[in-house]
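Thanks for the sequence, V.! I ran Bifunctional oligoribonuclease/PAP phosphatase NrnA right away. Repeating your input here for the record:
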Amino acid sequence: MSRPHQLLELLGENSEINIVCHNNPDPDCLASALALGRISAAADIDEHHIYYSGDISHQQNRTFVNLLDIDLKPFEVTMVTDLQPGSLLAFVDHSVPGRNNQVPPDTPVDIVIDHHPAEDINARFVDHRIEVGAAATILTEYVRVLDIDIDAELATALLFAIRSDTLDFLRGATSAEYDAAGYLHDHADQDMVRQISSPSVTGGTIDAISTAINNRWTSGSVLISHVGRTTERDSLPQAVDYLVRLEGVETAIVFGLVDDSIHICARSPDPRVHAGDILHEAFKDVGSGGGHHDSAGGEITLGIFADYTSNDEQLLSMVEQVITARLVAELNLPGEMEGSKSV
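Predicted structure:
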């Protein structure tokens, strides 16, 4: 029995599914959750719910949710601790309780569909393919194999998710992404795809990107910068995606203060550098970090930094020194870094 049909069989044995997105969900996670909900409905599941934690702050993500009218509910821990018989817990685009989600560690999970590198995945049904470029690619395969009715909204969501997670097929795309996109193209609303692709940008995002440009430091083909303190968490991936295009740069890492955490984003087209491993090794004793060889992220709770000083300028200076020093050591960079200015 194929994996799509195994999933359908599991779904058919239950009456409810609770799909949990990772923190601050992106289009790949949201579209995958939407598709799993449609598959569940086809399996005659009476109720399906999509939960999220954090913020949907990226301009594209907000536009994505609004135009596609995705029904999202804020995540609460009691949702998973009080599950009744016949209720399933599912993860899409992430895989382990307590890692990039608010689900308590060791919580039993029924379904995992993911493409990110991870270990210790434990669920009744697992489809974990790190070789594909997007979780939406896997869910598109399921929709096709199971002959699920696909309307313009679902096709648009899956198509945009694949494009977004692969940077329009420039990052981590495989033949599976092209095949899925070819199938989805004829069903998708192309005007809606264009609207989602070109949302307005907030002033806070522009300010954060500008700060990252001004604070950039380089050593050889490596660039490290920060956006200072920002309320626009998603300005970090936008800043690093912009800076990695700088001539001579093969690896770019941008960090910043968001609420009570340090967020880090990395991009590395350089095949000699594994961005996920770099962030994991540099910060595994103080926070979390990881991802693919060319795209990765991390988060560190301010903790002792915030306890040491209430002065935001001093706090940022301390964070910059510590984060930069760890990255320089992990990347084994020689000598002093060169840059436009210091903070």
